[in-house]
Amino acid sequence: MEIQFKRHKSKQSSKKGENVSFNDLIKLKSILFFKICNQLELELYLACCAWVYFEYLIKKGIVNKKNMSLYLSVLFFLTLKFYDIDDVKYINNFYELSNKCFKGDINKKLILENEMKVFGNLNFALVIPFEVADQHMDFATKNKKRSKNDEFY
Predict the structure, then answer these.
(1) Which residue did the predictor score with more confidence, 16 or 3?
(2) In the chain, at which end, N or C, are there fewer CB atoms within 10 A of the end residue's CB?
(3) Helix residue spans in 2-107 (DSSP H)
(4) What pLDDT does residue 144 have?
(5) Torsion of Cα atoms, 125 then 81 then 55 then 44, to 10°
(6) What pLDDT sits at residue 138?
(7) What angle do CA 39, 45, 50 make, to 5 degrees?
(8) Axis crossing angle, helix 44-59 with helix 137-148, rounded to the nearest 10
(9) Is residue 46 within 8 Å of residue 83, measured between CB atoms?
(10) Comparing C-alpha atoms, which of 126, 113, 98 is closest to residue 40?
(11) Are 77 and 94 in contact (CB under 8 A)?
(12) How far is CA 98 from the centre of its chain?
C-alpha cells in the first residue's frame, strides 16, 4: 500500500512577502543571544534551546514575519520555565527586554496568551538532546565580538 503525503502549507506563510528571510533569522538570533540572554545574564545554552524550538516551528510552517518575534519570545519564556528560571526578577526583566528589543510589539499579555498555543505546536515537548542545542553555541562564540559593536542591530 502506498502512502501519499501532502505538504502542509500554512495559511499564514503562504501570502507573498510574509515568509521569513535568512536576514530576519540572523537578526532575531542575534537579538536573542546577544541582547536578551546577555542582559539577563543567563547561560547562552538557554538561547540555543529556544532557537532549536524556533527552527522546529519554522519547519512546520507556523512561523511568519508577523509572528516571528512573538513566537521567539514565547519559546524563550517556555525555555526559562522548563529550566526553572522562574525568579520574578528574570521574568519581569525578560518581558521588558522583549518589548524593547522587538520595538514594542511584544508584551507580557501577548506572551502569556500564546504560551499554550506555541507549546502545543511543539507537541508539548521541550526535551532536546544536548548536542542539538550545542550546535548553536558556535554562532554565539564566533559572533560574540561582533555583537559588542552592534553590527547585527
Answers:
(1) 16
(2) N
(3) 22-30, 38-40, 44-59, 68-82, 88-101
(4) 62
(5) -130
(6) 79
(7) 85
(8) 110
(9) yes
(10) 98
(11) yes
(12) 11
